[in-house]
Amino acid sequence: MTKKRQIPHTYVIIFYIILFCTALTWVIPGGKYIEQVDAVGQKTQVYQQVPSVPQTWQVFAAFFKGFVDKADIIVFILIIGGAFWIVNDSKAFDIGTLHFLKKAKRMEANPFIRKVGVNNFIITAIMLLFSIFGAVFGMSEETIAFVIILVPMAITMGYDSITGVCMVFVAAGLGFAGAILNPFTIGIAQGLAGLPLFSGIEYRLFCWLIINAFGFTYILRYANRIKRNPKISPVYEEDEYWRKRHTESAIEIKFYTPKAAWYSFATIGVILALFCFSYPQTTLTIGNAQIEHLPILPILSALFLITSYFSLKKSVHIYILNLLFFTIFFLIVGVMGYGWYIMEIAALFFALGLAAGIANDKSPNDLVRLFMEGSKDILSAAMVVGLAGGIIVILKDSMVIDTILHTMAEGMTDMGNIATVGVMYAIQNLINLIIPSGSAKAALTMPIMAPFSDLIGLSKQTTVMAFQFGDGFTNMITPTSGILIAVLGIARIPYDKWFKWIWKFMLLLIVLGFLLLIPTVLMPLNGF
Q1: How confident is the model at residue 246 (pLDDT cuts 50, 70, 90)?
Q2: Is residue 368 part of a domain?
Q3: What sign for the dihedral angle of Cα 491, 495, 500, 504?
Q4: Structural domain of residue 110, as residue ranges?
């Protein structure tokens, strides 16, 4: 009998990639981009050859450096895992999900929704929300926190964990790729190219609609196949973890409101009052536009206190769901109004976990135990993020990453406009496999690509869109993306199975991106 071939573990795959990159450091010459300023103050990136630093024993140090480099995301994952374990212990998610699905079934009375399908409507509405977040303020890392909510929900609805990840991470990725007002990609790229910020928004809005229409259709077709026969899911065995958790939690739940829940409510009320006193008005930034002097924190706080009071009258479970609901609203305000990032978001969800645990009448020792259990449960996801960070460490420390970039850029001479934009687009996709950070890639590539487009008579706006699409799509497949690896780890989807599922989808999206670039070369468009 022949031995069945084992699929390599995600850790093994990452280690193989690190070994491959280490081998490249012995072949590719070293290079570095140096910023130079001319007489009129114009900054340009000039490539210079430098000695390479071939890697040997550093392949093992790369793991350590990868953990250090990705420490913020790793800690974020551990805090999110611990906090949500505390919340989940209250069974509030189970009640909320079942209540939501019962409400959704009543929507079948609407002829339009009945024709579309209630589940299709729900999935599309959720994906549209996260796509808007991705397109407007570049939601990316924030999706990690929502995966732990939407994957179990997708399983409860009869789908699989891939569908759950698509509802949040892939949807935000589609919005990120078709960015309308994303300051971290469009804003930086247009600024470096010398273009008015967020100019050409009309055509980008059209592209966002087309990308979403195609992406949502593809995901819904897959989800409906899984709904008909869950066993054909490539992650059916892995999803047993979520099905088991759902079965174990499907016990009779007693509705009650302990005194501790009122203490939690009062404490949060005092904290919110202090925040409202300190920040009575907020300026929301949406793309390049600002909405000033909004009393948004006082309004949100008042709404939270009112709804929480009536929630506590019913049950502590409803109160905890209300906590989660308003946590999301405060997250949006924090990101758009105060520039929150991973640390602030982690702190917000940590506070959510503590407030939910106290409301559920848990002692300090119980809270610590639950938090540790949650962090332990999600530790593998945090570990793989650090390991994947070692890939970038090897390429950076060997001084070859800029050489790879420069070599790709040189391949665009003596081509027609369509071919040139196609090569630019291909280069941006390839670079994104090793530099998944949109802002970092914009800083590296746009000072080179923008002047080059001037020389050949290509619109700088077209160059920005080639960067935008090239930066967005492959974030959903590259193993160097700490966010992707974290999302898959939380959803318990092995990378090899994710790759097998998504590569065709990615190929179609990349082709669609190229087709959307062609009109920017052939047609007169506003801002181009």
Answers
A1: low
A2: no
A3: positive
A4: 92-249+399-522
CA distance linking residue 176 with residue 185, whole number of Å: 9
Is residue 192 a part of any domain in this protein? yes
In three state form, how does the secondary structure of 411-466 look?
Answer: CCCCCCHHHHHHHHHHHHHHHHCCCCCHHHHHHHHHHHHHHHHHHHCCCHHHHHHH
pLDDT tens digit sequence for 80-113: 888 888 988 887 877 776 677 677 667 767 777 7
Residue 523 DSSP label: S
Dist. CA 468–CA 56, nearest whole Å: 35
User: Of 327, 391, 386, which is closest to residue 142 (Cα–Cα)?
Assistant: 327
User: Is residue 262 included in any domain, yes or no?
Assistant: no
Residue keyed to tokens 């040139």: 420
Does residue 247 surpass a pLDDT of 70?
Answer: no
Q: Residues 485, 189: contact at Cβ < 8 Å? A: no
CB 348 within 8 A of CB 328: no
In this structure, the dihedral spanned by the alpha carbons of residues 505, 182, 73 and 18, taken in order and rounded to 10 degrees, is: 50
* 469 part of a folded domain: yes
Q: How many domains would you assign to the chain?
A: 1
Alpha helices (H) in 47-187, listed in sequence order: 58-69, 71-89, 92-106, 111-116, 118-137, 143-156, 161-165, 171-177
Cα-to-chain-centroid distance, residue 521: 31
pTM equals 0.71
Count of positions (residues) in the chain: 528
* Structural tokens at position 154: 């997708």
